[in-house]
Amino acid sequence: MKLYSYWRSTTSYRVRAALNLKGVAYDTVPVDLVGGDQRSADFLALNPSGGVPALVLEDGTVLTQSLAIIDYLDANYPDPPMLPGDAAQRARVLAAALITAMDIHPVNNLKVIGQLKARFSATPEQAQDWMCHWMAEGFAALEQQLDPDTEFAFGDTPGMADLCTTAQVYNARRWGLDLTPYPHIRRVEAACLAHPAIAAAHPDRQPDAPPT
Amino acid sequence: MKLYSYWRSTTSYRVRAALNLKGVAYDTVPVDLVGGDQRSADFLALNPSGGVPALVLEDGTVLTQSLAIIDYLDANYPDPPMLPGDAAQRARVLAAALITAMDIHPVNNLKVIGQLKARFSATPEQAQDWMCHWMAEGFAALEQQLDPDTEFAFGDTPGMADLCTTAQVYNARRWGLDLTPYPHIRRVEAACLAHPAIAAAHPDRQPDAPPT
Predict the structure, then answer these.
(1) What pTM does this model have?
(2) Among B63, B94, B98, whose Cβ lies nearest the Cβ of A95?
(3) What ipTM is given for this predicted complex?
(4) Which of B57, B102, B126 sits opposite A65 (nearest CB)?
């Protein structure tokens, strides 16, 4: 498999972590979002949405949208599961993942920030305030929905909510959000970063990350 | 079951259509998003994210996030399925649904438009341009991913991609997006609106819609 990925993309981070947790081997193909690789004709032929991640299977099938890719991996490589089997518990974990995936990430996307700058002359400080606003609002809701007494978000093994949360916390730290009000979210991040499969998916450990 | 819903909310529209397709009875509890009902203490106790839809099951369990609710309904009321059984086809349908659910809707949410006005003094025209920009970009990608020769998005029965698409087209018409470039998207909407279960979920037919 080939994973089209950008080191700092939190949606790529989610999928890298799921692949690693399931022990699925893949080659990383870096897509430089800041340089505009995602708008090249070649990449748009692969993914008309012009985003990462995109996973190309052995038979050439192209999968897009991080949560659809994780759902596919769960069907084909069920161990460990990214969502629980019980329907009500599954809905709970999925809803927690979607707080990040719907309510935070899309509004803070690189292309959204680009439009804020182009249309409203947003300054770097205004862009940062914008991002932190949505992260603070989403994290406040997420904090109340995580299990209070488990190691990971909803149990003792990582799943979809853990991956979405940890990737978003990476971004929150990058943009200076105060994480003090979110002890459960910080607990989830710490548990994930201590897990070798998730740690290996961290942005700084990707082939396209700049040398430190 | 009780569905907390707002007539014009496209995420509520998706869930209403799924409930109707599956023949699941529910009572609608209107939440006036324009009036700010979603920020009341009572509603935040129900859904800390302060959004609709929220589905309260018979045993009092509260489900949030439209796609998590539809996923739950699919597990408990499998007929008709909102996603196909084959994993690769399922990933394709889910990715198409997520173009709307991730790349369009969250960026055009009422609260995002509110922040554009509050932070950047966006005019009504600028807000409309913003919404149409994301719809045009998302629809251009979606148009290429729908099946070209089926009645609904990916076959002859409606599923998750149909519901997300049709609800978003309602919003696109409301804001005056030119739909000429998207014949397959228009075909999906026409097929859905001709289906009684989906037609009954249309905003104009909800108890909280203003009298026409």
Answers:
(1) 0.97
(2) B63
(3) 0.96
(4) B102
